[in-house]
Amino acid sequence: MNKLLIVGTVAFDAIETPFGKTDKILGGAGTYIGLSAAFFNLQSAIVSVVGDDFPQEYLDLLTERNIDISGLEVVKGGKTFFWSGRYHNDLNSRDTLDTQLNVLADFQPKVPENYKNADVVMLGNLHPLVQSGVLDQLESTPKLVVLDTMNFWMDCALPELLDVIKRVDVITINDEEARQLSGEYSLVKAAAKIQEMGPEFVVIKKGEHGALLFHENNVFFAPALPLEEVFDPTGAGDTFAGGFAGFITQSENVSFENMKNAIIYGSNLASFCVEKFGTERMVSLEKEEVMVRLKQFKSLTQFDIEL
Amino acid sequence: MNKLLIVGTVAFDAIETPFGKTDKILGGAGTYIGLSAAFFNLQSAIVSVVGDDFPQEYLDLLTERNIDISGLEVVKGGKTFFWSGRYHNDLNSRDTLDTQLNVLADFQPKVPENYKNADVVMLGNLHPLVQSGVLDQLESTPKLVVLDTMNFWMDCALPELLDVIKRVDVITINDEEARQLSGEYSLVKAAAKIQEMGPEFVVIKKGEHGALLFHENNVFFAPALPLEEVFDPTGAGDTFAGGFAGFITQSENVSFENMKNAIIYGSNLASFCVEKFGTERMVSLEKEEVMVRLKQFKSLTQFDIEL
Questions:
Q1: Which of B188, B210, B264 sits opposite A228 (nearest CB)?
Q2: What is the arithmetic mean of pLDDT over B171-199?
Q3: Domains of chain B (ranges plus CATH)?
Q4: Which residues contact B111 (CB under 8 A, 6 or more apart)?
Q5: What residues does the Carbohydrate kinase PfkB domain cover (chains A, B) (predicted)?
Q6: Model confidence band, residue B146 (pLDDT cutoffs 50, 70, 90)
Q7: Cβ contacts of B100-105, under 8 Å, gap ≥ 24
Q8: Nearest-CA neighbor of B239 among B65, B19, B30, B4?
Q9: Taking CB atoms and an 8 Å cutoff, what residues of chain B touch A291?
């Protein structure tokens, strides 16, 4: 089985949406990526850090899905990263109510020995120096390195971000971040500029409006599945990235054609994530449900005009 | 050849975008619908009204495309409908600077005798009573009646709008209008409610984010083609509707499966419309360019996951 190395936060989230609010629940980019990638036939490990306030049941939840957590450092006396946010009525925007970095502030990632030859590396949204630090520890060149980031690092750590972007094959960012990073409003132009920064493949996430994959002069688009109700968008982008990286890891094929399929799998898994609060839906999700929804994605997008 | 009857404004537009501004140029929903539908193998006629300030060259432009203008009334001493608008920098929103109804204020549509048995009727955005007035003049039931409308009529003539909506097979509106008409934020729920109002098929246009087609429990999505530059969005929705109605007229097939193709053709033609000011690009467009872009739509959306 191929190996997927995941770097990303494992955290507590407290979420408010128009439909309700949660106490501190399991969250973090690494968590969502791991749970999503677990739907594929692969070995995975999460490199991250938590405090000793992090409940054993959450750790069990990860290991039950065959996610190696030997690279998940537990800091004695430390407190786990905490994020709290409130979504607006349209669920397309949110206010951050609280961010407590806690143990994340001094995080030094340590890649487990048997993942230093990972086939695919998924660098979840974290400080670019942490992302670089993981790449520095690898002993062989992965088939694919995927990086997710956000506007916060463009504002606060742009040189470091540009350094790590040079070293990856795929970048996943949202439309506003693509515009900020490139200085171009047109996403076609933005993707071209970002490709010049290093990544051969640029994935632009547009939330409920789907995702675009750019490579050289090619472009592919996957819609988000139209849902009766979006309950909580938290983690959708990470779930998308986890599905993308998981499918690539399983299939061992980094062609543009195969990445189209990976984008569809990512959109598919993300469409479940938003159906309940936090990780709840991903935890209850069955592989068969994913396959049924894949048929919906086909009928949603496939047409048969003869050319 | 099948007959497409088009009702919609034929007008002067003055447009400002971040890229420039125009004087009074040819515009109007009927014009865009007619120019777009002309790419298909069909007969078409426009029912509309202009003043005698409307230049012969614009009339010629329509008749050169085999559009029957015997139902286009020219009011002696009257002035043509005029609209002027300014787009914001993102081109997703605009301010109306001026609207002069002129001859449109007293418009009584007159369907040409030989179009009273039209195969397809495309009711462009106009007062719902004008739209009903056209349906009242038909002598046989068309295979398909498509209606386009806008929020203005929901605000000012809702009972009349609901009356005409009951009588159509397909409604095309944008996402905000679908929400306003249904009172539902979720587009899936909005489409279900609108189907209950009459139309079996609901097309929701999302501009640069593509278009959704709903029918019973089925949904199809066509993306907008990602473009380097959107120059002027004026008329894109009408061009989309014209492509949709034109393809259905040509193909004589009103199944959901065939409507998927019609939606793709509509998106295809709309993607050209926005490349230049007003009707300029549609006037210069060659059928071969449409076919080349159809290939781009295929590679943009088609994937080959085996199920």
A1: B188
A2: 97
A3: 3-301 (3.40.1190.20)
A4: B5, B47, B71, B134, B137, B138
A5: 21-281
A6: very high
A7: B102/B51, B102/B78, B103/B49, B103/B50, B103/B51, B103/B73, B103/B75, B103/B78, B103/B79, B104/B9, B104/B11, B104/B49
A8: B30
A9: 307
pLDDT in tens, A248-300: 999 999 999 999 999 999 999 999 999 999 999 999 999 999 999 999 999 99
- What is the ipTM, given to two decimal places? 0.92
Place of tokens 């994913």: A290
Helices (H), chain A: 29-37, 56-64, 128-136, 151-156, 158-165, 175-182, 187-196, 236-251, 256-273, 280-284, 287-301
Residue A111, class by beta-carbon neighbours within 10 Å (0-12 exposed, 13-18 middle, 19+ buried)?
Answer: buried
Band of the pLDDT at A91, cuts 50, 70, 90?
A: confident
What is the pLDDT confidence band of residue B91, given thresholds at 50, 70 and 90?
confident
**Integer Cα distance of B292 and A74 in angstroms:** 57
Decide if A226 and B298 are in contact by the 8 Å CB cutoff: no
Does the beta carbon of B187 lie under 8 angstroms from any beta carbon of chain A? yes
